[in-house]
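[agent] plan:
  1. take the single chain provided in the ticket
  2. run structure prediction with default settings
  3. attach structure tokens to the ticket
  4. add a short note for the reviewer (M.T.)
[agent] executing step 1
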Amino acid sequence: MCISDFSPCELISLSSTLAISINNQFNKQDVITLAAFFTTLGDNLALLSSTSI
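[agent] step 2 finished; step 3 output follows
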């Protein structure tokens, strides 16, 4: 199964579920660090995909 097989609603549900799970499993500082990491990862993926041929 590819990520593109998910509907927008399914992606939102998956994202929310993962965020809640991560928040419940890690301490506050780890969650802050993970949030910054995933934001940076997403920004870099967007930049790379916009410049790829």
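[agent] step 4 note for reviewer: The two ends are 25 Å apart (CA to CA).
[agent] ticket updated
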